[in-house]
Amino acid sequence: MKLLSILSSSIILLNYVHAIKPVTSAQFYPLNRNGDIPTDLEPFQLGQDIPLDCISRNIDNGEHKFDDKDRIIYIPFPTCQETNKPLSFKYGVSEDVNCTIGFTDELYHLFQLYIHEDSPFSCRLPLSNEPHYIEKGGAFIPLTFNFRGQIQDSHLDIDSHLNVLFTKPAEENTLISSVAWSSGTNATRIVIGDFLTINLAVRWLDNLKNTDSNTDSFRNVNGLPFPDGFYKLPLNSIPISYSMFLFYLGLVSLASGALVLAFSYNLISIKFSKTHYRNLDNESLVTKRD
Ligand SMILES: *[C@@H]1O[C@H](CO)[C@@H](O)[C@H](O)[C@H]1NC(C)=O
Ligand SMILES: *[C@@H]1O[C@H](CO)[C@@H](O)[C@H](O)[C@H]1NC(C)=O
């Protein structure tokens, strides 16, 4: 009886939804602090560090901390022992990175909140390479670190193996979206004072097709910073562009070329010192005379 009434009311609701016109006034995302479409983006260079900062939270309840202007306070990601600097990502570079962080009392309590999903481990990345771009009111995209694990009475179990995905437009060196999530099956036991190595598999998807482009219905069409639409993952194939593929191929062949050279150099120089490459010429002369 109850189910039936829920069903019928949802059918009425569905009819109502069908009756109203589809929403046509789309709005570009992301906007800058003034609510405008961010134009004049300064492109990132391939391989450069992108600034990353994260919401500062109260350890009692996970609430944001605010400054005296009621703005959310952002702080750097915890410092990695490997670099002695807070974690950051290289623009456009797919690579495996490690970051070993120390669990202070504060960080331990914050991770209790993250793993319990009371509050997200929220960070952000600027859309433009201009210095202090976000602080000056520029647009940014969120990057949330979804660490998973279990909270125990005496310790935390944390899955520290994270996939990190970035999507970018094919032509413009800016950002569309990013996400990081635990994908291992091996949790590490952590107590206050411990160090944890986070293994990050960072991948850049730069060849996603933007479907459902809406450009014509934007109110402010005097220039979008990059083509709009749903940068959708394909059902199959790896969405990296031919040029990025060549870039990595180039890196790999440079590295392997150097390796081959290093190995063969010894052989060549041994052979050269023995024969000075004269034997071939001599032989060919001999054959000609024959
Ligand atoms: C990261 O650390 C793991 C061990 O936790 C190690 O096997 C791997 O080689 C390291 N990777 C890099 C890129 O340093
Ligand atoms: C799981 O993690 C622990 C602690 O980091 C490590 O000692 C162990 O080798 C890992 N096991 C596997 C299968 O990765």
Automatic annotation (TrEMBL):
* Protein name from the UniProt record: Protein BIG1
* Transmembrane regions listed in the UniProt entry: 245-268
Q: Which residues form the signal peptide?
A: 1-19
Species name for this entry?
A: Hyphopichia burtonii NRRL Y-1933
Q: Which PANTHER family match?
A: YALI0F14399P
Keywords of this entry = Membrane, Signal, Transmembrane, Transmembrane helix
